[in-house]
Design goal:
- The protein is mostly helical.
- Helices cover about 65% and strands about 0% of the residues.
- The protein contains 6 helices and no strands.
- The termini are far apart.
Length: about 110
């Protein structure tokens, strides 16, 4: 089975940036060592990991438990939508719609 550890590292790194979380915080939340997180993010050691390690890291990042496993196998590429972010997203879309409506009112014609 093809395993894309680079995709896993990229996904974790991007999510850390997105959430403003450090690797140390992630390690603590996931209950794994900082070394494990560093190895995953920087693709330093692609030895076989326990499925529960990727599950714990996925959960600590706010993803479904199986997300990083799917990234590893190449069956998912995009991060899943976090349901808790939907109300904020809906509010932001409404604000954009209102601004667009105001702009359209000012246009001639």
């Amino acid at each position: 089975m093809q395993q894309d550890w680079q995709a896993v590292g990229t996904a974790i790194g991007a999510r850390l940036d997105e959430q403003g979380m450090t690797m140390t915080e992630l390690a603590a939340r996931a209950g794994v060592s900082l070394t494990t997180i560093r190895e995953l993010v920087h693709v330093l050691n692609t030895r076989r990991r326990q499925p529960r390690t990727l599950a714990a890291v996925s959960t600590a990042l706010g993803w479904p438990e199986d997300h990083l496993g799917k990234v590893l196998r190449g069956t998912v590429t995009a991060a899943p939508v976090n349901p808790s972010e939907l109300p904020d997203l809906a509010t932001r879309v409404r604000a954009v719609e209102e601004r667009l409506s105001e702009i359209e009112k000012r246009l001639p014609g």
